[in-house]
Protein: Heme-transporting ATPase
Organism: Sulfobacillus acidophilus
Amino acid sequence: MVNPPGPLIEVVNAEKSYRGVPVVHAISFHVNAGEVVGLIGPNGAGKTTTLRMVTGLAAPSVGTVRLDGHSVVSERGPALKALGTIMEESRFYGYLTGLDNLRQVARMRALASGRASLLGYLEEVGLLQAADRPVREYSLGMRQRLALAVALLVRPKILVLDEPMNGLDPAAIKDLRDRLRQMAADGLAVLLSSHVLSEVEHVCDRVLLLDGGRLVGEERLRGERRDDRPVWLQVEPLDRAADLLREAGWRTERQDQGLVVYIGPDEVPHVIRHLVHHDVAILAVVPDRGGLEARYLAQTGANREVIG
Protein backbone atom coordinates (compact mmCIF):
# COMPACT_ATOMS: atom_id res chain seq x y z
CA MET A 1 0.00 0.00 0.00
CA VAL A 2 1.41 3.38 -1.04
CA ASN A 3 0.46 6.22 1.27
CA PRO A 4 0.78 9.96 0.53
CA PRO A 5 3.19 12.10 2.52
CA GLY A 6 1.83 13.47 5.75
CA PRO A 7 -0.43 11.92 8.38
CA LEU A 8 -3.40 9.77 7.37
CA ILE A 9 -5.47 11.24 10.23
CA GLU A 10 -5.03 14.95 10.94
CA VAL A 11 -7.13 16.82 13.51
CA VAL A 12 -6.47 20.56 13.82
CA ASN A 13 -8.08 22.71 16.55
CA ALA A 14 -11.28 20.64 16.38
CA GLU A 15 -14.10 21.58 18.74
CA LYS A 16 -17.58 20.15 19.17
CA SER A 17 -20.52 21.77 20.93
CA TYR A 18 -24.07 20.55 21.45
CA ARG A 19 -26.73 23.26 21.96
CA GLY A 20 -23.99 25.73 22.73
CA VAL A 21 -22.30 23.50 25.31
CA PRO A 22 -18.71 22.56 24.32
CA VAL A 23 -17.81 18.90 24.87
CA VAL A 24 -14.50 18.86 22.99
CA HIS A 25 -12.18 21.87 23.12
CA ALA A 26 -9.70 22.72 20.34
CA ILE A 27 -7.85 19.40 20.12
CA SER A 28 -5.10 18.70 17.61
CA PHE A 29 -3.35 15.42 16.86
CA HIS A 30 -2.31 13.18 13.98
CA VAL A 31 -1.87 9.49 13.20
CA ASN A 32 0.67 8.34 10.63
CA ALA A 33 0.63 5.27 8.40
CA GLY A 34 1.99 2.31 10.34
CA GLU A 35 0.99 3.70 13.75
CA VAL A 36 -1.46 2.48 16.38
CA VAL A 37 -2.57 5.41 18.54
CA GLY A 38 -4.76 5.03 21.62
CA LEU A 39 -7.29 7.53 22.95
CA ILE A 40 -7.76 7.23 26.72
CA GLY A 41 -9.46 9.23 29.46
CA PRO A 42 -12.15 9.16 32.14
CA ASN A 43 -15.85 8.70 31.38
CA GLY A 44 -17.19 11.83 29.71
CA ALA A 45 -13.73 12.96 28.61
CA GLY A 46 -14.83 13.32 24.98
CA LYS A 47 -13.31 10.17 23.49
CA THR A 48 -16.38 8.96 21.60
CA THR A 49 -17.22 12.48 20.38
CA THR A 50 -13.66 12.81 19.08
CA LEU A 51 -13.94 9.51 17.23
CA ARG A 52 -17.30 10.56 15.81
CA MET A 53 -15.66 13.70 14.41
CA VAL A 54 -12.81 11.65 12.94
CA THR A 55 -15.22 9.21 11.27
CA GLY A 56 -17.54 11.88 9.89
CA LEU A 57 -20.46 10.93 12.13
CA ALA A 58 -20.34 14.40 13.74
CA ALA A 59 -19.05 17.52 12.03
CA PRO A 60 -16.65 19.64 14.11
CA SER A 61 -18.20 22.93 15.21
CA VAL A 62 -14.80 24.55 14.73
CA GLY A 63 -11.56 23.27 13.23
CA THR A 64 -10.61 20.66 10.65
CA VAL A 65 -10.47 16.88 10.42
CA ARG A 66 -8.70 15.32 7.43
CA LEU A 67 -8.49 11.68 6.42
CA ASP A 68 -5.91 10.76 3.79
CA GLY A 69 -5.53 14.49 3.09
CA HIS A 70 -9.27 15.13 2.57
CA SER A 71 -11.65 17.11 4.80
CA VAL A 72 -14.40 14.93 6.31
CA VAL A 73 -16.78 17.90 5.84
CA SER A 74 -15.99 19.45 2.45
CA GLU A 75 -14.50 16.32 0.81
CA ARG A 76 -16.58 13.71 2.56
CA GLY A 77 -16.58 11.08 -0.22
CA PRO A 78 -12.80 10.83 -0.75
CA ALA A 79 -12.17 11.14 3.01
CA LEU A 80 -14.48 8.30 4.04
CA LYS A 81 -13.31 6.10 1.17
CA ALA A 82 -10.07 5.61 3.12
CA LEU A 83 -11.85 4.67 6.35
CA GLY A 84 -12.87 1.42 8.06
CA THR A 85 -14.59 1.58 11.45
CA ILE A 86 -15.88 -0.40 14.41
CA MET A 87 -17.76 2.26 16.34
CA GLU A 88 -20.24 0.29 18.46
CA GLU A 89 -21.28 -3.28 19.19
CA SER A 90 -21.74 -4.82 15.77
CA ARG A 91 -25.10 -6.37 15.00
CA PHE A 92 -25.30 -9.39 12.73
CA TYR A 93 -28.04 -11.76 11.63
CA GLY A 94 -27.64 -14.73 13.97
CA TYR A 95 -29.37 -17.17 11.63
CA LEU A 96 -27.00 -16.31 8.73
CA THR A 97 -23.47 -17.62 8.41
CA GLY A 98 -20.48 -15.37 8.86
CA LEU A 99 -19.95 -15.47 5.09
CA ASP A 100 -23.57 -14.52 4.35
CA ASN A 101 -23.48 -11.66 6.86
CA LEU A 102 -20.37 -10.33 5.15
CA ARG A 103 -22.03 -10.76 1.74
CA GLN A 104 -25.07 -8.75 2.90
CA VAL A 105 -22.86 -5.82 3.93
CA ALA A 106 -20.81 -5.99 0.72
CA ARG A 107 -23.95 -5.90 -1.44
CA MET A 108 -25.43 -2.97 0.51
CA ARG A 109 -22.20 -1.05 -0.09
CA ALA A 110 -21.90 -2.11 -3.75
CA LEU A 111 -18.63 -3.91 -3.05
CA ALA A 112 -17.30 -7.17 -4.47
CA SER A 113 -19.41 -9.96 -2.98
CA GLY A 114 -18.11 -13.11 -4.67
CA ARG A 115 -17.47 -16.09 -2.40
CA ALA A 116 -13.72 -16.22 -3.08
CA SER A 117 -13.29 -12.52 -2.36
CA LEU A 118 -15.26 -12.64 0.88
CA LEU A 119 -13.50 -15.79 2.07
CA GLY A 120 -10.26 -13.86 1.67
CA TYR A 121 -11.44 -11.27 4.19
CA LEU A 122 -12.57 -13.97 6.61
CA GLU A 123 -9.21 -15.70 6.27
CA GLU A 124 -7.48 -12.39 7.00
CA VAL A 125 -9.24 -12.16 10.38
CA GLY A 126 -8.96 -15.85 11.24
CA LEU A 127 -12.55 -16.89 10.53
CA LEU A 128 -12.11 -19.02 7.42
CA GLN A 129 -12.92 -22.26 9.25
CA ALA A 130 -16.10 -20.69 10.68
CA ALA A 131 -17.27 -19.06 7.43
CA ASP A 132 -20.27 -21.39 7.01
CA ARG A 133 -21.32 -21.50 10.66
CA PRO A 134 -24.30 -19.38 11.77
CA VAL A 135 -23.23 -16.29 13.68
CA ARG A 136 -25.41 -17.24 16.64
CA GLU A 137 -22.78 -19.91 17.34
CA TYR A 138 -19.93 -17.34 17.32
CA SER A 139 -18.22 -16.26 20.53
CA LEU A 140 -17.94 -12.53 21.28
CA GLY A 141 -14.34 -12.60 20.07
CA MET A 142 -15.40 -14.21 16.78
CA ARG A 143 -18.11 -11.57 16.31
CA GLN A 144 -15.48 -8.88 16.85
CA ARG A 145 -13.31 -10.50 14.19
CA LEU A 146 -16.30 -10.54 11.85
CA ALA A 147 -16.79 -6.82 12.53
CA LEU A 148 -13.13 -6.32 11.64
CA ALA A 149 -13.69 -8.17 8.36
CA VAL A 150 -16.59 -5.79 7.63
CA ALA A 151 -14.32 -2.80 8.33
CA LEU A 152 -11.73 -4.20 5.93
CA LEU A 153 -14.19 -4.62 3.04
CA VAL A 154 -13.32 -1.16 1.71
CA ARG A 155 -9.57 -1.92 1.87
CA PRO A 156 -9.06 1.08 4.14
CA LYS A 157 -5.90 3.04 4.82
CA ILE A 158 -7.34 4.09 8.19
CA LEU A 159 -8.99 1.99 10.90
CA VAL A 160 -10.93 3.61 13.79
CA LEU A 161 -12.21 1.46 16.66
CA ASP A 162 -14.27 2.52 19.69
CA GLU A 163 -13.65 0.22 22.70
CA PRO A 164 -12.82 -2.81 20.53
CA MET A 165 -11.73 -4.97 23.50
CA ASN A 166 -14.93 -4.60 25.54
CA GLY A 167 -16.14 -7.95 26.83
CA LEU A 168 -13.41 -10.01 25.16
CA ASP A 169 -11.64 -12.80 27.03
CA PRO A 170 -7.82 -12.72 27.29
CA ALA A 171 -7.30 -15.01 24.28
CA ALA A 172 -9.58 -12.86 22.10
CA ILE A 173 -7.87 -9.66 23.28
CA LYS A 174 -4.45 -11.06 22.37
CA ASP A 175 -5.76 -12.15 18.98
CA LEU A 176 -7.16 -8.67 18.27
CA ARG A 177 -3.96 -7.03 19.52
CA ASP A 178 -1.81 -9.14 17.19
CA ARG A 179 -4.08 -8.42 14.21
CA LEU A 180 -4.03 -4.65 14.82
CA ARG A 181 -0.24 -4.67 15.10
CA GLN A 182 0.00 -6.62 11.83
CA MET A 183 -2.35 -4.17 10.10
CA ALA A 184 -0.17 -1.28 11.26
CA ALA A 185 2.90 -3.14 9.99
CA ASP A 186 1.10 -3.39 6.64
CA GLY A 187 0.75 0.41 6.55
CA LEU A 188 -2.65 1.19 8.09
CA ALA A 189 -3.14 4.09 10.50
CA VAL A 190 -5.07 2.77 13.51
CA LEU A 191 -6.85 4.96 16.07
CA LEU A 192 -8.65 3.28 18.96
CA SER A 193 -10.25 4.19 22.27
CA SER A 194 -10.04 1.77 25.16
CA HIS A 195 -10.32 1.64 28.93
CA VAL A 196 -8.15 -1.51 29.08
CA LEU A 197 -4.93 0.35 29.85
CA SER A 198 -2.74 -2.76 30.02
CA GLU A 199 -3.75 -3.64 26.45
CA VAL A 200 -3.27 -0.07 25.27
CA GLU A 201 0.33 -0.38 26.48
CA HIS A 202 0.79 -3.58 24.50
CA VAL A 203 -0.75 -2.51 21.21
CA CYS A 204 -0.24 1.26 20.88
CA ASP A 205 2.77 3.26 19.73
CA ARG A 206 1.39 6.45 21.28
CA VAL A 207 -1.46 7.42 23.59
CA LEU A 208 -3.49 10.63 23.72
CA LEU A 209 -5.07 11.51 27.07
CA LEU A 210 -8.37 13.39 27.04
CA ASP A 211 -9.83 14.94 30.18
CA GLY A 212 -12.78 17.33 30.32
CA GLY A 213 -12.90 17.49 26.53
CA ARG A 214 -9.29 18.66 26.31
CA LEU A 215 -6.16 16.90 25.13
CA VAL A 216 -4.07 17.07 28.31
CA GLY A 217 -1.27 14.65 27.51
CA GLU A 218 0.47 12.64 24.83
CA GLU A 219 2.97 9.88 25.42
CA ARG A 220 5.04 7.66 23.17
CA LEU A 221 5.02 4.08 24.40
CA ARG A 222 7.54 2.79 21.89
CA GLY A 223 10.61 4.22 20.23
CA GLU A 224 11.28 4.10 16.52
CA ARG A 225 11.99 0.38 16.86
CA ARG A 226 8.87 -1.64 17.58
CA ASP A 227 10.17 -3.32 20.78
CA ASP A 228 11.67 -0.20 22.36
CA ARG A 229 10.20 0.77 25.73
CA PRO A 230 10.90 3.80 27.97
CA VAL A 231 13.28 3.31 30.90
CA TRP A 232 13.72 6.18 33.38
CA LEU A 233 17.20 6.80 34.77
CA GLN A 234 18.32 9.00 37.63
CA VAL A 235 21.93 9.78 36.81
CA GLU A 236 24.70 12.24 37.61
CA PRO A 237 25.77 14.25 35.75
CA LEU A 238 22.55 14.41 33.74
CA ASP A 239 23.78 16.41 30.74
CA ARG A 240 26.79 14.15 30.22
CA ALA A 241 24.60 11.02 30.40
CA ALA A 242 22.19 12.45 27.83
CA ASP A 243 25.04 13.29 25.45
CA LEU A 244 26.63 9.84 25.84
CA LEU A 245 23.39 8.01 25.13
CA ARG A 246 22.52 10.13 22.11
CA GLU A 247 26.02 9.67 20.68
CA ALA A 248 25.60 5.90 21.10
CA GLY A 249 22.36 6.02 19.09
CA TRP A 250 19.74 5.78 21.86
CA ARG A 251 16.81 8.23 21.87
CA THR A 252 16.44 10.15 25.13
CA GLU A 253 14.10 12.67 26.77
CA ARG A 254 14.31 14.69 29.97
CA GLN A 255 11.66 13.77 32.55
CA ASP A 256 11.22 14.39 36.30
CA GLN A 257 14.85 15.43 36.92
CA GLY A 258 15.97 12.27 35.15
CA LEU A 259 16.37 10.81 31.73
CA VAL A 260 14.06 8.52 29.73
CA VAL A 261 15.87 6.30 27.25
CA TYR A 262 14.00 4.19 24.67
CA ILE A 263 15.66 0.79 24.47
CA GLY A 264 14.94 -2.84 23.72
CA PRO A 265 14.16 -5.32 26.51
CA ASP A 266 17.74 -6.68 26.63
CA GLU A 267 19.58 -3.38 26.38
CA VAL A 268 19.33 -2.09 29.98
CA PRO A 269 22.61 -3.73 31.07
CA HIS A 270 24.39 -2.31 28.00
CA VAL A 271 23.14 1.20 28.78
CA ILE A 272 24.25 0.97 32.41
CA ARG A 273 27.68 -0.40 31.49
CA HIS A 274 28.13 2.34 28.89
CA LEU A 275 27.34 5.10 31.38
CA VAL A 276 29.43 3.63 34.22
CA HIS A 277 32.38 3.19 31.85
CA HIS A 278 32.21 6.95 31.21
CA ASP A 279 32.05 7.83 34.92
CA VAL A 280 28.32 8.51 35.12
CA ALA A 281 26.71 7.57 38.44
CA ILE A 282 23.51 5.48 38.21
CA LEU A 283 21.20 6.39 41.12
CA ALA A 284 17.97 4.72 39.96
CA VAL A 285 16.60 2.64 37.06
CA VAL A 286 12.82 2.43 36.58
CA PRO A 287 11.56 0.34 33.62
CA ASP A 288 8.31 1.69 32.11
CA ARG A 289 8.14 4.36 34.86
CA GLY A 290 5.38 2.61 36.81
CA GLY A 291 3.27 1.71 33.79
CA LEU A 292 0.64 3.60 31.86
CA GLU A 293 -1.99 3.30 34.60
CA ALA A 294 0.21 5.09 37.14
CA ARG A 295 0.95 7.90 34.71
CA TYR A 296 -2.73 8.10 33.76
CA LEU A 297 -3.70 8.54 37.42
CA ALA A 298 -1.06 11.21 37.86
CA GLN A 299 -2.59 13.17 34.97
CA THR A 300 -6.27 12.76 35.81
CA GLY A 301 -6.19 12.49 39.61
CA ALA A 302 -5.99 9.37 41.76
CA ASN A 303 -9.52 9.79 43.11
CA ARG A 304 -11.14 9.66 39.70
CA GLU A 305 -12.42 6.60 37.92
CA VAL A 306 -9.68 4.81 36.02
CA ILE A 307 -11.96 3.23 33.47
CA GLY A 308 -13.33 5.71 30.93
Observations:
- The CA atoms of residues 7 and 164 lie 23 Å apart.
